[in-house]
């Protein structure tokens, strides 16, 4: 694998964003990219004093890294902080708050034990949140329900928590939404490359449309699911036999919250004549 040639940019549509290790930045000179690094200082040295416009954001993969090089550089550059172990990395968020003075910052939190507390702390500190993963354990689904309750009912929450935010807006306005796109896991839109420039094997199916259609044809649970359109069989990856009972309840809660919000907005509009 280490001797394979990096994927040529021309093998994918021009609109596909490549998520690449910072070391591969120069291999894709004509691509919009997301740069991943465990060393912000090295990324700053690589990119120079002015961040190229084709760098959409910088993902920091190590929360213990020295973030000092980002505090006075690249103003406006979006930063994504990867929290791979929320149960143990939770306290590290406090040291990241200085980034908010110069950057829009999101915390990508893995669907693992500790996720509810991590989401609560992240939004309280002013970070946007993205939940990363596909098939959570029943205990983690219970934590997601707790996180959803906080997102919906805590009046101090001012930052989006995805996918809750995107789903709520889609249900509210009755517009299409797709979890694969919402969570940046559709390879036609964001292609994650590993250190050798090859498609990372754990990012999801090569074609989400084919994956969804295959599940609909083979699995009654997807075929009969009221949330198939927004989910797109997202939670059936990578094990098609995974039980979706828990995540279905999350969709139902969001749908009910959107209906309640829509009714409240209609009543307010009526009261204003």
Short description:
This protein has helices spanning 40-47, 68-71, 86-89, 115-124, 138-153, 164-173, 179-182, 208-218, 220-223, 228-231, 245-271, and strands spanning 17-21, 33-37, 55-60, 78-83, 105-110, 128-132, 161-162, 190-192. By secondary structure, the protein is of the alpha/beta class.
Keyword list:
single chain; 273 residues; alpha/beta; eight-stranded parallel beta sheet; 11 helices; globular; disordered N terminus
Mind sketching the topology for me?
Elements: E1 17-21, E2 33-37, H1 40-47, E3 55-60, H2 68-71, E4 78-83, H3 86-89, E5 105-110, H4 115-124, E6 128-132, H5 138-153, E7 161-162, H6 164-173, H7 179-182, E8 190-192, H8 208-218, H9 220-223, H10 228-231, H11 245-271
Parallel strand pairs: 1-2, 1-8, 2-3, 3-4, 4-5, 5-6, 6-7
Helix pairs in contact: 4-5, 5-11, 6-11
């Amino acid at each position: 694998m280490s001797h394979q040639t990096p994927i040529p940019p021309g093998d994918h549509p021009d609109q596909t964003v490549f998520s690449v290790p910072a070391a591969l930045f120069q291999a894709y000179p004509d691509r919009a990219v997301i740069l991943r690094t465990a060393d912000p200082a090295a990324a700053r040295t690589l990119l120079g004093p002015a961040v190229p416009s084709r760098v959409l954001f910088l993902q920091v993969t190590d929360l213990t890294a020295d973030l000092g090089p980002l505090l006075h550089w690249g103003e406006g550059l979006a930063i994504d902080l990867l929290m791979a172990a929320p149960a143990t990395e939770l306290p590290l968020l406090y040291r990241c708050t200085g980034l908010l003075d110069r950057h829009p910052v999101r915390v990508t939190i893995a669907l693992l034990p500790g996720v509810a507390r991590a989401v609560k702390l992240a939004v309280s500190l002013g970070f946007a949140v993205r939940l990363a993963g596909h098939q959570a354990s029943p205990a983690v689904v219970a934590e997601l329900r707790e996180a959803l309750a906080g997102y919906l009912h805590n009046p101090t929450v001012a930052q989006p928590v995805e996918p809750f935010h995107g789903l709520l807006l889609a249900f509210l306005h009755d517009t299409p939404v797709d979890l694969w796109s919402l969570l940046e896991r559709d390879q036609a839109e964001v292609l994650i490359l590993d250190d050798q420039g090859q498609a990372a094997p754990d990012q999801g199916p090569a074609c989400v449309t084919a994956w969804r259609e295959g599940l609909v044809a083979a699995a009654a649970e997807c075929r009969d699911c009221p949330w198939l359109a927004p989910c797109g069989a997202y939670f059936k990856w990578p094990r098609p036999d995974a039980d979706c009972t828990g995540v279905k309840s999350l969709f139902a809660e969001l749908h009910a919250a959107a209906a309640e919000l829509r009714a409240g907005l209609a009543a307010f509009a009526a009261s204003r004549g």
